[in-house]
Amino acid sequence: MPSVPFDTAAAVDLAQPQPAAPTVLDRWLDNVCDELSEFGWTSQSVLPLIPEGLMGELRSEVQTLHRSQALDTAGVGRGKDHTHDRSVRRDRIAWLNGETGPQGRLYALFQSIQDGLNQRLFLGLKRFEAHYATYEPGDFYRCHVDSFRGRSSRIISLVLYLNEGWQAADGGQLQIFNPENPDEVCGQVLPEAGRVALFVSEDIPHEVLAAQRTRYSIACWFRRDPIQGIAL
Ligand SMILES: O=C(O)CCC(=O)C(=O)O
Ligand SMILES: [Fe+2]
């Protein structure tokens, strides 16, 4: 009797449409969403997803803004509570509008991250906002959360770091605290180019330790309110 050349039971029926193989982005999002669900935060490399050259272009943009003093001191709080308290935060910021070439490419990536978060976690995210931030030597951002409880406007925070060759001695680490016990540090992220931190905006207390050299980043918030200025 002729031997069966392969396991017919396990053979793929090529006549049927096959599900598309997961992409690098799918696998990245699966991992991010697992960690967000379990811990409320995650730190990942975004380099496998970033188009060639984009990190350097974004770094040049923020360095140009920095040199031309086009960054504003960042405030704390919203509306009438908005203040510039240098004992709380000392970074300088410039909002992105997605209209330069590099920002357009970054916005396409943020949009696919937003779609992927919605598909996996059913967050109902509708838009995102993002700003560049620079921390000069000595600058910090004390422990805070990014969204007031019950406001549910900023849902997920994402921070993308732009400095190359950042060492532990350069400081500026993002410290993540245990939401149940805000005295307990449960993670630290080195702000090295291509690394991103993602966390649940209203749950995760975090702080930026004092930087020892100029630190460049992009902070992005995925929001549930559809129109700027209207918080649900
Ligand atoms: O740059 C970071 O690591 C975090 C910044 C931050 O917490 C913020 O802008 O709200
Ligand atoms: Fe924050």
TrEMBL record:
Named cofactor requirement(s): L-ascorbate
Domain of life: Bacteria
InterPro entries: HIF_prolyl_hydroxylases, Oxoglu/Fe-dep_dioxygenase_dom, Pro_4_hyd_alph, Pro_4_hyd_alph_FE2OG_OXY
Fe2OG dioxygenase domain mapped to chain residues: 121-224
Key word Calcium present: no
Keyword terms, alphabetized: Dioxygenase, Iron, Metal-binding, Oxidoreductase, Vitamin C
UniProt keyword Nucleotide-binding, yes or no: no
PANTHER family, A to Z: EGL NINE HOMOLOG-RELATED, HIF PROLYL HYDROXYLASE, ISOFORM C
Name by which UniProt lists this protein: 2OG-Fe(II) oxygenase
